[in-house]
Amino acid sequence: MPRVAVIVGSLRRDSINRKLAQALAKLAGSQCEFDLLELADIPLYNEDLFDPEPPAAVRRMKEAVTAADAVLFVTPEYNRSFTPVMKNVLDWGSRPVGTSCWPGKPAAIVGASPGAIGTAVAQSQLRHVVVGLGMVVMGQPEMYLSFKPGMIDPEHNVVEDRTRQFLGNHLAAFLAWIERHRPG
Q1: Is the overall model pTM greater than 0.70, yes or no?
Q2: Best CA proximity match to 23, nearest among 111, 144, 155, 126
Q3: Residue 57 bridge partners (DSSP)
């Protein structure tokens, strides 16, 4: 069973992207293990903090990504870009030079927003960075979810059949992507 490190680009407890990540994890069931990484205690990237090694929260994050078979980025869109949380995690994971946890990891990018085009701009920008870090990013299908109140219930169930099928199809494609591109 593949293990997926899930990086949600919002720190807000009631984040719609956290809800999306939790719903995807529930939909996956026993097909894979989703590990939603805790990011709130990761400091802003600062090379001075590597003396003598990165902070414990950074080491924990890098170990989780290294142990995972794949990475799922669940990004909000802030001001037509991905979030500072996401950039911070990417920067920490890529340093120090020669110790990046990203190269070769199969990855997918999804996101939700209340707007009509979901997180299309943020995902496009994030894709450039993720590819530059050496991840193998799934190109299709893409998922730009226009999130509506009540779409996901408090137990992380997707309420509408059509949305559940859409998310399930994306998840199935991602699992196939992982199998095709998983190192080793």
Answers
A1: yes
A2: 155
A3: none
